[in-house]
Amino acid sequence: MSVTVEGSLRIKRIQGANGPFCVGDLLTEIGEFRVKDPVLDQFEEGVYTGRYIIQRIFSWSYTSNGRLVVEIRARLADLQIDDGTESTVPDAPAEPDPADEQSQPAEEGAESPAVAREDDKPAETASAPVADASPDRRLFGDELYALVVERKPVKLDPAIDDRKRFREQRNRLKSGLDYAFVPEEQTWYPAESEQYQAYLAGKSEA
Q1: pTM exceeds 0.70 for this model
Q2: Where is the segment annotated Disordered (predicted)?
Q3: Both ends of the chain: CA-CA distance in Å?
Q4: Residue 149 phi/psi, 5° resolution?
């Protein structure tokens, strides 16, 4: 059973062996939780307020520098950002990359309808690589690749099995294809597009 709460999510970007990844601290009226969902990897450091649908709360532990760290995590089914302020977050202690963690067993919590299941995933993430396909086609899949070629908005699917591939898609959009992320929509827009320029104008006037 999921619960919807209002709160603020403080996101920190950490440089790991697999490249940069993001973790978050979700502050709500029912408590403070650590969030390490793949969707956070799209965000810049900062604080984001909005509504968060928590699918599951559970404890997680790991060893760091010879000490045992126990944290209370929240797994999100969805997040609806109302406002975000990008800013540098104070350095945090080193911690494991969530991409290296073992998957949680199925009995640990049923997925909510807001989370894409294996047979519900968009076709672009399930497309089989084609031998003569371009690197971008292999990375994004046919449907997302078509959007990129036409310089249309792109919404990545954080529910794909390979979190590292999700980051590769993010990196390619941001650094190689000149796309920019709008957190309130969780959508990537061409940096030159009217939609993104309007977004920037709105932020500057706020």
Answers
A1: yes
A2: 84-134
A3: 37
A4: -60, -35
Enter the tokens of residue 76.
Answer: 């999100």
Chain centroid to Cα 71, Å, comes to 20
Calpha distance 12→8 (Å, rounded): 13
CA distances from 101 to 34, 36, 104, 164 (A): 15, 11, 9, 12
Extract the tokens encoding 83.
């406002």
The sign of the torsion formed by the CA atoms of 140, 188, 22, 52 equals negative
Strands 19-28 and 179-182: unpaired
pLDDT, position 114: 40
- Kindly report, residue by residue over 163-187, the tens digit of the pLDDT: 999 999 999 999 999 999 999 999 9
What tokens does 6 get?
Answer: 């209002």
User: Do residues 2 and 114 touch, judged by C-beta distance below 8 A?
Assistant: yes
- Residue boundaries of the structural domains of the chain: 3-88, 118-205
